[in-house]
Structures are given as structure tokens and as C-alpha cells.
Amino acid sequence: MRDDHERRADERRRDGDNEGPVEEELELEFEDVVGEGAERLHRTFRATTVTGFLGGIEVGVGVLAYIGVLYATDDQLLAGLAFSIGLLALLMAHSELFTENFLMPIAALIAREGTIGQLLRLWSGTLLANLAGGWLVMAIIVLAFPEWHTVLEETAHHFLDAPLDWRFVMLSVLGGAVITLMTRMQEGTDSEPAKIVAAVAGGFILAGFQLFHSILDSLFAFGAILSGAEITYLDWLLWFLPVLVLNLLGGLLLVTVLRIVREGELFTLRRQNRD
To answer: Are 103 and 260 in contact (CB under 8 A)?
Structure first.
């Protein structure tokens, strides 16, 4: 399919016609996004959970860097930059974060390359595996660095004690949008340095500005609970559920839906070809 689009793009260049309904670069990128999304939707449950578990571990490594730098420097922005190590690990190890699955699988679904059941299986498997892998890493961190317990507790309280107001909503929406946009940026280039820049930028914005993120901030809560803070798993769950929904809305409404609207004709052509 990608070869067909490249052939049509070459024909347009030869004919001097580059004013078609979509740019050739967008057409090629569309095929990459749908292809990657279809691959994710058709994974086995075992592959999904293993990939997600590794993703949780790698985000946990980012939390390790974040808490370590915050403990040593008390500099929130520097700690946020350190956290980007976790997103770099995700990129280079080809693991996945739950909020990375708001663009490509949805695009594949609309292109009729998968089903809603497959999407829900991907989301639920990745989400639970992310949390499990992250919990394991936090248990190790709590045992390895007892001097960090106070920082973990303060960080967890920053998120879990936030009132459910408009600021809570906006920070959660932005948290989902930033990671989805990072995924979009990485999928839009073949340059590895550019993908690394996107990962660092995404990690810095997400953690440095303390946006609300269902997976990252859950790890802070797990660390605080395991270190003996007066926080319960019920406290975490009551915070987690609205953030999860708002992350989803942020990723879908601010990034995914706009991309689908922009590439609407490509989706139509793709569905017609399948029919």
C-alpha cells in the first residue's frame, strides 16, 4: 500500500500536480500510522501484556531518575528533564505506555483494520500491565532508597490531594494530549534523533510541569503507599479513575480527532479499497 502511494506521488510530481486533496507526505504518514495501529490491535494478549509490563518498568526507571534528581536538587524542571529517560527507554525498547495508544489504534479502527473489541483488549491489557510493572519498580525503589520516602510522599500528595476542579480537569486533559502528541511526532518522522527529541520534550513537559498522568503519577502513589505514607489504594483509585478518563479525552479530542478530520479523505479511500 505504501508503494502505491509513493508511485502516485511520483506521478503527481512528473505531471506537475501537487495540489491534490492531501500532501504526499501526509499520505505516506497515514499508511505508517494505520499500519502500526493495526499491528497493535492484532497482537496476542500475551504480547500486549508483556509489552505493557516492560513499559511500566521503563516508566519506573524514569521515576527513579525523577525522584533522585528532585531529592538531590529540589529542582522540579530538572527532575522533569531527568524523567525523560523513561520515555527514551520506551522508544528505544519498543515498549508501550497506555496513553501512547490513543492515536494509531484508533486510526486503524476507523480504517477498518480492527474491531472495538481488539481496541478495548489493547487498552485494558496495556493499562493493567503498565501499572503492574510500575508497581514492581516502585517496590524496589522504596527498598533501595529509604531516604527518598519523604519526597515520594510529598509528590504523591501533590497529585492525590488535588481537588476535582477545573484545574484538575485541564491538567489531566493536557497530560493525555502531550503523550499522544509525542507519539504523533515520533510517527511523523524516520529520523531517530528527531524521535529522541520528541521523547525528551514530552517527558520534560509532562513531569517538569506536573501534568496529571494516569500511569506516571500512579507510580508516585504506589511508592508513597509502599513507603508507609498515610495514603491508601482507595485514595489512589478515587484519583486515578477521573484522571484516566480525562487523559483519554485529552489525547482523543486535542490530537487524534483533529488528525482524523485532517486525513478524512484517506480514511474514506482506505475503507473503499477494503470494500
So the answer is: no
Q: For residue range 222-256, what is the model confidence (pLDDT) as tens digits? A: 999 999 999 999 999 999 999 999 999 999 999 98
The percentage of residues in the chain with a pLDDT greater than 90, rounded to a whole number, is 67
All residues at 6 or more sequence positions from 61 whose CB lies less than 8 Å from its CB, including other chains: 85, 86, 89, 137
DSSP 66-108: HHHHHHHH--HHHHHHHHHHHHHHHHHHT---GGGGGSHHHHH
pLDDT confidence bin for 12, thresholds 50/70/90: very low
Higher pLDDT, 5 or 77: 77
Domains and CATH numbers, the chain: 46-95+117-262 (1.20.1080.10)
Contact in structure between 182 and 201 (CB atoms under 8 Å): yes
